[in-house]
Structure formats: C-alpha cells, structure tokens
Design goal:
By secondary structure, the chain is mainly beta. It contains 1 helix and 11 strands. The relative contact order is 0.24.
Length: 171
C-alpha cells in the first residue's frame, strides 16, 4: 500500500506543479489575439484630391500588450495604399517617400499620422475625394489581421514635399 500512496502523491505533485506553473503565467504570455484587435484610430481624416494621390492622417492607439505592426493597406478608392514618411535632407528640403518596414503602434501606446510625418497615401485614386465626404481604407497588420478605417475628407493644401516614389508598394 505504501507504493500506492507514493504513486498517488507523485501524481498529485505533478498535477499541482502543472497547475502552479499555469497560474504563474499572465494572460499576456498567451496573448494570441490578432494585432488589429487592440488597435483603434481616432481623429482620422484624408486630404481632398481630384486625382492622383491623397493622404490619410489620424492617431492609432494600441490597448494590447504587444506592438502592432502595420505593413500594408488597401482601399476601394485607390489603386494602392502606401505607408509614407516625410524626411528632411541636410538642406532642409522635405521629401515624402514610402516608409520601409511599415510602422508600429507600441503596446499600450499611440502612433500619430500627421502632415509632415508618417501617414498613409491613397495612390492612383479611382475617384475624386471631395471635402465633406468619407473615404474607407483598411490597414493590414504583420499577422494578416485588418482594421477598417473611415476618414472624413477635408481641404488640405499639403506640405509641398517632394515626392520620391520607392520600389516598395503596399497593398
């Protein structure tokens, strides 16, 4: 009978150790939610344009415990959506170009898309974007999850940056 007591005790010990180990891990250790699940966008708007390209701005917020990496986008209003940045050279000339590697909304943080900085570009517009109307686009995260965005279209003259197209296009 002492062998049975040992087997039961050993089994109970293994079960207790397994239970204890699983209790010591936090839910974020097992966080397998899609990146898009914790991300919202606020104050989003897009620049008006008759043709060509238009920019989308706003603030992405991430309530998740891991960074959310935006790598692409698509919109029924455009042939493609690109992630862009504006950089200044040594002479102060600002250049808009595709942002290599996309952008990350940090865990429990924000990432602003602003004129003169990071933004989304709707390229090869399929229709004019008129002030007061809305445009829809979808951002795509590194894990394949997607976040639909609706932005109000506003008059905006732009930052008058030089545009440097890149070989990288998204969407």
């Amino acid at each position: 009978m002492s062998d049975n007591k040992f087997r039961i005790s050993a089994g109970a010990l293994v079960a207790a150790a397994t239970l204890l180990a699983s209790a010591c891990t936090s839910p974020s250790d097992h966080d397998d939610q899609p990146m898009a699940a914790g991300v919202t966008v606020n104050d989003q708007w897009a620049s008006a344009a008759d043709a060509g390209m238009a920019a989308m701005f706003g603030t992405f917020s991430n309530a998740g415990h891991h960074g959310a990496h935006i790598v692409a986008g698509h919109s029924p209003a455009a042939g493609r959506v690109e992630i862009h940045e504006v950089v200044a050279d040594e002479g102060g000339t600002k250049t808009m170009r595709p942002k290599s590697g996309g952008l990350t909304v940090p865990a429990e943080g924000t990432h602003e898309l602003v004129p003169g900085g990071d933004h989304l570009m709707l390229m090869d517009l399929r229709q004019p974007l008129r002030p007061g109307a809305e445009v829809t686009l979808t951002v795509v995260f590194e894990d394949g999850s997607e976040l639909p965005v609706t932005a109000q279209i506003r008059d905006f003259a732009g930052g008058h940056e030089d545009y440097q197209p890149g070989s990288q296009s998204h969407g």
